[in-house]
Amino acid sequence: MTDGALPALATEHPAVTTLRRLLAMPQAALGVVVIVLTVLAALLAPWIVPVDPEEMDFDNLLSGISAEHWLGSDQMGRDTLARLIVGAQVALMVSIGAVGLGVALGVPLGLASVHFRGFVDDVIMRVMDALVVFPSLLIAVGLAAAMGGSLVTVIVAIGLANVPWMARVVRSQGLTVRELDYVAAAQAGGMSNVRIIVRHILPNSVAPVIVQATLGMGYAVLTEAALGFIGVGIQPPTPTWGNMLQQAFPMLDQQPLLSVVPGLAIFLLVLAFNFVGDALRDILDPRLKGVVDA
Amino acid sequence: MLEVEGLKMHFPIRAGVFGGVVGHVHAVDGVSFDVGEGETVGLVGESGCGKTTVGRSVLRLLKPTAGRIRLEGEDITHLGNRALRSHRRRMQIIFQDPFSSLDPRMKARDIVGELLDVRGVARGAERDERVEALFERVGLRRDQLSNYPHEFSGGQRQRLGIARALSLNPRLIVCDEPVSALDVSIQAQVINLLMDLKRELSLSYLFIAHDLAVVEHISDRVAVMYLGRIVEFARAKDLFENPQHPYTESLLAAVPSTDPGRRQRRRLLQGDVPSPINRPSGCHFHPRCPYATEQCREEDPQLKPVAEGHLAACHLR
Questions:
Q1: Candidate CATH numbers 3.30.930.10, 3.60.40.10, 3.40.50.300, 1.10.3720.10; the one for domain B2-90+170-312
Q2: Which domain holds residue A38?
Q3: ipTM score here?
Q4: B20-23, long-range: CB within 8 Å, 24+ apart, which pairs?
Q5: What's the whole-model pTM score?
Q6: Which of A4, A192, B42, B68 is the most buried (most CB within 10 A)?
Q7: Size of interface A-B (CB pairs under 8 A)
C-alpha cells in the first residue's frame, strides 16, 4: 500500500521555505544582512543621519575618520556618513524603481508573446532584441541630455534596459508552462486563454522573474553609480554614491577615504544582490543555473 | 456519444530563415471510430503512433487538419474557443503524468474546484461542499484539501486529476494513459476507481494506453493504432482471442503470459516504428510484417470488416 497517507507535513508557506533555505547559504545570508542593513539605514535616515548632508563644516575639510565625522568629510566639509546614508536611499529608490519599471513593462510583454505567439511574438521579441543592443548608459545619456539628469531619468533609463530581460525570462518560462498538462486541463475545462495566463502561466513564471529582478537590482545600483560618475545621473547637491565617487576622484591622492567609502558601499550592495540572486536562482529554479545572468 | 470520422492531424515542419514548410508529421492520418453511451473504447499502440493526438483532437485541444468530430450528434470539429465552451463540460481528460497535470502552486481544493468557479457552476459554500464530495468520491481525505500537489503521492495525484475531471459532470472522459506512470499496485486501484465511476455515473471512456493487459480489463471495444491509423478495431474479447492484423498479433505476443504454451508461440516485433514524416509505401506496417507480400509493399490496405463487428486493415484477411 504505497498509496496510503503521507505523514502529515506542516504546510509552510513557500516564501517561508525559500527564506529559510536562503539564510542557510552563507553567501546568501551575508547578502541578506547587507541588504537589510542598507534598507534599514535608508528607512531610518531622518533619525540616524548625524548632520545635514549638505551642511559644510569649514573647520574640517577632507578630514579622515574623526569624532566629528565618523567616516570623514569631503572637500567642502560635508559629512561622508550622512551623505552615504542619503545616497543609500537614492540607490534603493533607483534599483526598486528601475526593476519595478522593468517588471511592469517586461512581464506583460512576455505574457503577450506567450498568448499571441506567431507574428506578435516575433515583433515583440525583435523589439526587445533591439533594446538589448542599447546599453542603459547610452539611454541614460540620451535621456539626461533631453530632460536633464534626475531621479526619474535615471530610473527610466535603467528600467528600460531591464524590460527586454524580464520579457525574455517570462516568455521562455511561459512557453514551457503552456505545454504542461494542467494548462491543457484548464483548456479542456473551458477556461479562456487570458484566464489561463493569469491563473496558471503567470504564477508559475514568477520564480525566474524574482531571480532576474534581484540580479537586476544589483545591476541598477552599479549603473546608477556609473551614471553619477560620468555626470549624467542625479545631479549634485543630492548625494548619490555615484556622484560622491565623482567628486572624490580628484581628491584621490589627498583623501583616499573619500573614494573608498562610497566605492565600498557600491561594491558591497551589488555583491549582496548578486549573492542573493544567485542563491534564489539555485533554490527556485535549479535548471537555470548559469543561464540567467545580469 | 462520440463519433470520429476520417480524423487527420498533420503538423507542418518548418525550416530555414523564412520558416517554409518542408514536410509534415502525419501524426493522425484518417482515423474513424465511435464511442457509445456508457462504453469504454481502448486505443492502443506504440509510442508515437498518434494515440495521444487523437485524444487531444477529440477534446479539441488541437484543431484537426481534416475529418469530423461529433459529440452527442453535434459537430464540434470547427467550433471556436467560445462556442466550444458549452461542449467542454461534457468531455474531460485525465492525464498520464500526475506531476505536470496539476498546478504546483494551487491547493488541492482549488485544483478540484477551479472549473466550478470558472464556469460559475457553484460558488462559496456550495462549491466547497461539492469539492469535498468529489474528494471523498475519488478516495481522498478531507484533511488533505489544503495540501499542495507535491504533498500527495503519485496515485493520490492521479485521484486529484480524476476529481477535477469529474467536477463538471462530464459524459465522456478521455483517459490519456492514466495509469502508465503509476506503480503496478496502484494501477489496479486507479483502474478500479475508474470502473466504479463509470458504472455509477454512466460515463463513456476513450481509454488510451500502451499496456494491453490494462486495456483488455477495462475496454468494451479496442482500436489498435499504428503510425497514425487504426489497423484493427473490434470487441475486446474478439481482438484478444482472435487478432486479425499481424501488428495486433505481435503486440499480443509481447504481453507477458503465465501460460507456458503461449510463451512458445511468441513472435516478437523487430525494428522500430517508422518515421511519421516519411512513411513506408503501401501498408505502413510491411517493413516489420512477417507475412508481407508484394501487394503490401505497393497497395495501401483499407480498414474493412473481416467478421461481424471486427474491422482490420490487412490485405491478407
A1: 3.40.50.300
A2: 16-49+77-288
A3: 0.85
A4: B23/B277, B23/B278
A5: 0.80
A6: B42
A7: 84
